[in-house]
């Protein structure tokens, strides 16, 4: 590192520390919102033939900070992730500074040990004793690997010969499941029309009788039922599908059972709430995003398998001793190269940030964090229920709140709620979401940051009512 580079890095770290220290202030906006055209004028994103001086580069850093959404802010409530702990941030920085790849043990010996240790711990919590797993880029890739594993397990020849026209493989998910299963069907050649969305009950949980009926319909149409994806912590409603009942149906028809616990997997950290995932040990695979509820910078996700060896069989598509001999050198004996069971070659050490945080908080610390956010979500539920201007659109089941601003004017409720969400963000007040669930348009927020307090919830709901009244008067 040259002297100029050292000064640049020192100045950069000062800006970072200032951001971290001032990020959560209550009187600080969550975002300095600019429309695209205005932002393009204010933020110079151009790249010239000649580089810029250190001062200009640092000015760009400060501008980036000025206009970014502050995800550690207590009013950042509109996503399934929020905030990050300082221990996990240290792990993220350490991973970037060392800049190693998880492809081989030789390239990342300590990181390999850390990843294997975390995978074993998480598998034990799920109930996959003697299974396997790996870190990957997010819940979408986790669900993709799960469907790929099911596809190649039901017919190993697909790996070498590909899908044939006479094969119509069918995936079954609930109508509240994540859209990534549709992506998987597209990428893997199964076809998006072969994804069957099974009806859910009033709370958004998969209807098991409807699942069995859908499987029977597929069989009657000479299709091959392949896979059922249970959701543990749906994006909007936070509902958990009845895993044990679904597992019984999956076993009856020999379907691969996957649990998409990208959001809800973290309830396993709480003895008070882990019963929401009763029966998880019956699944074939389980995806879990630590970056959602464990306060870890994204991405930090895992796919866990009940049986060992499947990831290697599914993800290795060549003779790695020859075709990839420039990477993998020890395949004939025991190997700790994680790259041979991953769809990625170059892969960041994402396990390090989770390990740092878990090392710091321990199981008990994480249990307190999970219990804390559920309690705050209960408080939000109570506050909404007490208000004459707000209403819960669906019962709270986890940390997700779907609610609406009520209006005395007929025919404008949906429009008011949509505009309300936009105006809150544009004013930098609160970052919440707007979505449609079972045909009902709702405002939505999630309590996943344990630093959020009852006062923060009060502030949010007061802002919602204030802006709602303004919009109602204008319409």
CATH superfamily descriptor of the largest domain: Type I PLP-dependent aspartate aminotransferase-like (Major domain)
C-alpha Rg (nearest Å): 24 Å
- The level of helicity is 40-55%
- Beta content comes to 5-15%
Annotation field: number of helices:
15
Explain the overall architecture:
This protein has three domains: 65 residues; 248 residues, Aspartate Aminotransferase, domain 2; 117 residues, Alpha-Beta Complex (Aspartate Aminotransferase, domain 1). It is 43% helix and 12% strand. It is built from 15 helices and eleven strands. A seven-stranded mixed sheet has the order 1-7-6-5-4-2-3, sandwiched between helices. β4, α10 and β5 form a beta-alpha-beta unit.
Concise account of the structure shown:
The chain has 475 residues and is an alpha/beta fold. The protein contains 15 helices and eleven strands.
Describe the structure using short key phrases.
7-stranded mixed sheet; Aspartate Aminotransferase, domain 2; Aspartate Aminotransferase, domain 1; 15 helices; 43% helix; 3 domains
Set out the fold topology.
Elements: H1 3-22, H2 36-42, H3 54-67, H4 86-98, H5 109-126, E1 132-136, H6 139-154, H7 158-161, E2 169-174, H8 180-187, E3 195-198, H9 208-220, E4 224-231, H10 243-252, E5 256-260, E6 285-289, H11 290-293, E7 301-305, H12 310-315, H13 351-386, E8 390-392, E9 400-405, H14 413-426, E10 433-437, E11 440-446, H15 454-474
Parallel strand pairs: 2-3, 2-4, 4-5, 5-6
Antiparallel strand pairs: 1-7, 6-7, 8-9, 9-11, 10-11
């Amino acid at each position: 590192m040259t002297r100029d580079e050292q000064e640049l890095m020192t100045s950069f770290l000062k800006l970072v520390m200032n951001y971290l220290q001032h990020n959560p202030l209550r009187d600080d906006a969550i975002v300095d919102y600019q429309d695209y055209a205005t932002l393009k004028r204010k933020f110079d994103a151009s790249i010239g033939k000649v580089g810029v001086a250190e001062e200009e580069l640092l000015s760009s850093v400060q501008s980036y900070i000025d206009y970014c959404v502050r995800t550690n802010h207590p009013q950042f409530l509109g996503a399934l992730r929020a905030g990050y702990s300082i221990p996990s941030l240290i792990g993220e920085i350490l991973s970037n500074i060392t800049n190693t790849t998880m492809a081989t043990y030789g390239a990342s010996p300590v990181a390999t040990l850390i990843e294997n240790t975390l995978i074993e711990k998480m598998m034990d919590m799920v109930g996959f004793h003697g299974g396997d797993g790996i870190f990957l880029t997010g819940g979408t890739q986790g669900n993709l690997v799960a469907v790929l594993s099911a596809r190649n397990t039901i017919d190993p020849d697909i790996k070498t010969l590909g899908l044939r026209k006479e094969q119509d493989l069918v995936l079954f998910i609930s109508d509240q499941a994540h859209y990534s299963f549709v992506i998987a069907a597209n990428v893997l050649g199964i076809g998006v029309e072969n994804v069957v969305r099974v009806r859910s009950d009033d709370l958004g949980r998969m209807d098991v009788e409807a699942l069995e009926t859908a499987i029977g319909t597929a069989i009657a149409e000479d299709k091959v039922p392949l896979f059922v994806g249970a959701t543990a912590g749906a994006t909007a409603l936070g509902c958990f599908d009845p895993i044990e009942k679904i597992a019984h149906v999956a076993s009856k028809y020999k379907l691969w059972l996957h649990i998409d616990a990208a959001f809800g997997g973290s309830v396993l950290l709480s003895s008070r709430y882990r019963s929401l995932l009763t029966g998880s040990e019956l699944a074939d695979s389980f995806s879990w995003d630590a970056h959602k509820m464990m306060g870890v910078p994204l991405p930090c996700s895992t796919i866990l398998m009940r049986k060992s060896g499947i990831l290697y069989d599914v993800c290795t598509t060549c003779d790695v001793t020859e075709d990839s001999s420039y990477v993998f050198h020890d395949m004939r004996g025991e190997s700790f190269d994680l790259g041979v069971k991953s769809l990625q070659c170059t892969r960041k050490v994402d396990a390090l940030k989770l390990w740092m945080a878990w090392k710091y908080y321990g199981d008990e610390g994480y249990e307190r964090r999970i219990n804390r956010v559920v309690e705050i979500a209960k408080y939000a539920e109570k506050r909404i229920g007490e208000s004459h201007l707000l209403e819960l659109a669906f019962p709270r089941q986890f940390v997700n709140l779907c609610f609406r601003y009520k209006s005395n004017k007929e025919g404008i409720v949906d429009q008011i709620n949509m505009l309300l969400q936009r105006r809150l963000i544009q004013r930098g007040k609160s970052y919440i979401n707007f979505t449609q669930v079972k045909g009902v348009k709702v405002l939505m927020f999630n309590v996943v940051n344990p630093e959020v307090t009852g006062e923060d919830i009060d502030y949010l709901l007061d802002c919602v009512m204030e802006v709602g009244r303004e919009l109602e008067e204008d319409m």
